[in-house]
Amino acid sequence: MPPKTKFTKEQIINAAFEIAKSEGIDSITIRKVADRLGSSIAPIYVNFNDVDELKQAVANKVVQLSQHMIYEENSGNTFRDIGVASLRFAQEYPVLIRDFVMKPNDYFQNHEKEMGSDLVEHMKKDATLEGFTDDELMTILFKMRAFQMGLTIMVANGLLPKEFDLDNMIKISDDVAEDVMIATRVRKEK
């Protein structure tokens, strides 16, 4: 009898991610992942207790991917980096955007606070944001995320006019970021 094929935890997560990317995270089942790997379900249960643990691992991968996309931009302008990464993510992974942004789920909630803290640290390196306290940076970040989330959802759902390309979206995002920062400085000086 030939030996059973072994799969790493990463290979299993990648197979589940591919399912989530095209069908949504709720479509991940142990059987579908096993089928994608050409395997029985046994190797999956060696690495994960249940499908929810596997889905959480996929959510962790999505968060890592989105953070990587932000830091990959590295323009020196925090909001541009966040905005461009968000728009690119929406264009490349619209199903995941709809899953993690438009549907209530527990998978992403664990990362919200951590991501906010990481982004504030990233914002502190931006010269245009000097002089703001951590609380002010969190407020600015929240306002920008609210705007960016709307634009991202519009991209993921194909709601923008066809002539509205990435450059147009970046321009609008840059303008809104500047408006939010100016308004925050004006309020701070009052």
From TrEMBL:
<keyword id="KW-0238">DNA-binding</keyword>
<feature type="DNA-binding region" description="H-T-H motif">
    <location>
        <begin position="29"/>
        <end position="48"/>
    </location>
</feature>
<dbReference type="InterPro" id="IPR001647">
    <property type="entry name" value="HTH_TetR"/>
</dbReference>
<feature type="domain" description="HTH tetR-type">
    <location>
        <begin position="6"/>
        <end position="66"/>
    </location>
</feature>
<protein>
    <submittedName>
        <fullName>TetR/AcrR family transcriptional regulator</fullName>
    </submittedName>
</protein>
<dbReference type="InterPro" id="IPR009057">
    <property type="entry name" value="Homeodomain-like_sf"/>
</dbReference>
